[in-house]
Specification:
The protein is mainly α. It is built from six helices and no strands. The chain has one domain: Serine Threonine Protein Phosphatase 5, Tetratricopeptide repeat. Helix content is 68%, strand content 0%. The longest helix is centred in the middle third of the chain and has 16 residues. It starts with 8 loop residues before the first helix and ends with a helix.
Length: 106
């Protein structure tokens, strides 16, 4: 898919999700940034890419950077699949794997 359209935000986002689940956080951030630099289709990519990057920063002890990403997510004004609610939740309480599996979040 990427060979056909290197600008595909969705393809980069999906790769980023895989890297995140594999705990390859540097690659996850890189793919999410590529998603943000792509065609931004579908529109929900922007908010969820920022959320995912924020989660990586929380997981790696970079709270200030995480908060910045959650704020960027809020600025999209896109509440696709409850994204803004999730951003607000992580602003209040840092993301952690334990909380995510207990809450069964995205």
């Amino acid at each position: 898919m990427l060979e056909l359209n290197k600008n595909s935000s969705l393809a980069h986002y999906r790769l980023g999700e895989i890297y995140f689940k594999l705990r390859n956080y540097n690659a996850a951030i890189e793919e999410m940034r590529r998603a943000l630099d792509g065609d931004l289709l579908p529109k929900w990519i922007e908010v969820w890419a920022h959320l995912t990057i924020g989660k990586v920063f929380d997981m790696t002890g970079q709270r200030d950077r995480a908060l910045n990403e959650y704020q960027l997510a809020l600025h999209t004004n896109n509440n696709a699949q409850g994204a803004l609610d999730e951003a607000n939740k992580y602003i209040q309480h840092p993301y952690s794997e334990q909380a995510a599996t207990a809450g069964n979040s995205k």
